[in-house]
Each structure stands twice: as structure tokens, then as C-alpha cells.
């Protein structure tokens, strides 16, 4: 009977049965009066995307269903502050927080970084003399891939521990600190931001700062979890990218809107999905064409004077 179903019937069936198996559902019963005077990208908060439980406390991802953007609130419906990104975050194997054994993941993370560079070059030509800045450089996996590709690169990382590991593993020095304190002598042709923007509370200020660091026609390359993904629709609050260290949750629509608001044109956007790869007679390419993969990969171009 599965083979006789069309794509949309399979799509709905997987979502319904996964929701049932994991006993998850929408959370729209939440009271919005506590945040009724706030907006996100000009839209009212009218949806609770998920309720996360951590350390016996509830956290709520509230946002706009029109643009599929969520913001993390604590049990008192107050904005959540960023956590500390030190050794325990990278190597501590804390449930629902951080990476766990980040160093042991180096091989596949470098391979992923090489593929990210290929994607950037596929949709925009990085010139031979281009200078790249990697935000949230971590242990330096992406900088290592850039080094192997002959690209001049710099890194910025707030974690003292990650900077120590980056120097130990690859010999790279990152600027240690917040982006707001970063005042380089020159501007950059490319700024990469992989798995970072979801950790930022004030994304408007963040994008304004990124804009100030880019040359005219410079590229801003982002990867971040997709709140409009098929995985989220299947697993709801159990979606693996919903974490208490993620303060903003984007969809392709809300991410493009955020960039447009701050002077960037989106020149390429795609989503990727791995969890359902190989699922019998279920075409992942349709998910990708509908922008419903689990991660967003987006390239913005700064056309204003840099």
C-alpha cells in the first residue's frame, strides 16, 4: 500500500505516524499575553513551536507562524541569555547541550567543511586573493579546509577553550571575543557563519556588525537549523536542533527577510536533509525543492557600499 501512495500522501503519513509514535503535537495552547507587545521581523507572536525541558525547567520556542521564526523564552516568558562555550560545551557530553566529543568529530567535520567550500564556489566565485573571516571558528575545522584550498583566512571565536584547541590542532590564532569588540584593519571578501546565528539574541545588531566588516559586493554565508523542516514537523519538540543554547530559530523565509532588512540580497538558498536519506520510495529532492531540509544554507551578497 505504501508504494501506491503519492508523494503528498507519504509525506502526511510519515508526519502523522511519527507524531503518534513519539507522542508529540503542536503546542498552540500556550498563553501569548506575556509577549503580546513584542514582534519578530514585524510579525506578532502567535505560535508556540515547541516546549523544551531542561534541568526540570520548561523553555518555550515562541514566534510567528507566518514567517516560521521562533525565539527561545524561559518559564517566565523572558528572553534567554547565551550560555558559556567552554570545555564542557565542546567535550562534556551534556544531554541536550553542546557537541560532546567535538575533537573526535574532526574527520567528518573537515569533510563537511570542504563540501561547504565547494558549495560556496559553486554559487559564487571566490577570487584567488579573497580574504575570508570565519565567525564561530571553534576548533578551526573550516579554517583548515580554507587553508588546504589556498584561501587567506581569519577566525573569530568567543571560547577560550576552543581557541586553545584551534591553536593546538592546526596552529591558527582566532580573535578571542565577541564580534562587537572585533575591529580589524581591513574588510573581508567573504564572511562565513556556520551554526552560529541561532546562538545570537539580537540578530539585527549582529547583521549590522557583519555588514560593517564586509567589502562592497562581499558575501555572507550562513548555515543554521531550519524551523520549517520536515524533521521538525515529524519530531516537534524532539527535533534534534531544538536546544536551550539556540536563541533564534529561522526558516528560509525569515532568514532571507532578516538579511534583506539589513542590506543583503540572497543570491542562493537551499536546504539539506540527511535523516530520511534512503527512506524507501520517498524522494528527498522534493523536500529540498520545498525548502524543508533540516539545515538552511544561504549566501547573501552586500550590494550597498561596504
Helical residue percent?
25-40%
* Ends apart, CA distance between termini: 57 Å
Can you count the helices? 9
Most strands sheet? 7 strands, mixed
Total count of strands = 13
- The spatial strand order of the largest sheet comes to 8-7-6-9-10-13-12
In terms of quaternary structure, the protein is: single chain
Structural class: alpha/beta
What does the average pLDDT come to?
92
Overall 3D form: globular
> Which regions are unreliable across 5 or more consecutive residues at pLDDT < 50?
none
**Compute the gyration radius: what is it?**
20 Å
* Share of β-strand residues: 15-25%
What letter string, H or E per element, gives the SSE order? Answer: HEEEEEHHEHEHEEHEHEHEHE
3D structure, described in words:
The protein is α/β, with parallel strands linked by helices. It is built from nine helices and 13 strands. A seven-stranded mixed sheet has the order 8-7-6-9-10-13-12, with helices on both faces. Strand 6 (131-135), helix 4 (141-148) and strand 7 form a beta-alpha-beta unit. It is globular and about 55 Å long.
Amino acid at each position: 500500500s505504501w508504494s501506491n501512495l503519492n508523494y503528498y500522501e507519504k509525506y502526511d503519513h510519515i508526519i502523522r505516524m511519527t507524531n503518534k509514535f513519539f507522542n508529540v503535537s503542536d503546542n498552540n495552547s500556550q498563553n501569548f499575553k506575556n509577549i503580546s507587545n513584542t514582534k519578530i521581523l514585524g510579525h506578532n507572536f502567535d505560535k508556540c513551536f515547541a516546549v523544551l525541558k531542561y534541568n526540570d525547567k520548561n523553555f518555550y520556542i515562541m514566534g510567528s507562524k507566518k514567517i516560521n521564526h521562533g525565539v527561545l523564552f524561559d518559564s517566565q516568558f523572558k528572553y534567554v541569555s547565551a550560555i558559556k562555550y567552554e570545555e564542557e560545551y565542546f567535550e562534556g557530553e551534556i544531554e541536550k547541550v553542546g557537541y560532546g566529543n567535538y575533537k573526535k568529530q574532526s574527520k567528518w567535520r573537515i569533510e563537511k567543511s570542504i563540501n561547504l567550500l565547494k558549495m560556496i564556489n559553486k554559487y559564487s566565485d571566490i577570487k584567488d586573493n579573497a580574504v575570508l573571516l570565519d565567525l564561530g571558528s571553534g576548533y578551526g575545522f573550516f579554517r583548515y579546509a580554507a587553508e588546504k584550498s589556498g584561501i587567506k583566512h581569519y577566525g573569530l571565536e568567543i571560547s577560550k577553550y576552543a581557541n586553545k584547541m584551534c591553536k593546538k590542532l592546526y596552529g591558527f590564532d582566532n580573535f578571542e571575543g565577541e564580534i562587537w569588540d572585533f575591529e580589524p584593519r581591513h574588510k573581508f571578501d567573504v564572511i562565513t557563519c556556520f551554526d552560529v546565528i541561532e546562538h545570537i539574541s539580537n540578530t539585527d545588531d549582529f547583521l549590522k556588525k557583519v555588514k560593517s566588516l564586509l567589502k562592497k559586493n562581499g558575501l555572507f554565508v550562513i548555515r543554521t537549523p531550519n524551523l520549517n523542516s520536515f524533521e521538525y514537523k515529524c519530531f516537534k519538540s524532539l527535533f534534534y536542533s531544538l536546544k536551550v543554547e539556540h536563541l533564534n530559530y529561522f526558516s528560509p523565509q525569515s532568514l532571507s527577510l532578516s538579511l534583506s532588512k539589513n542590506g543583503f540580497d540572497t543570491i542562493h538558498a537551499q536546504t539539506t536533509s540527511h535523516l530520511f536519506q534512503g527512506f524507501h520510495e520517498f524522494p528527498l529532492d522534493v523536500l529540498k525543492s520545498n525548502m524543508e531540509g533540516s539545515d538552511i544554507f544561504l549566501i547573501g551578497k552586500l550590494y550597498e557600499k561596504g
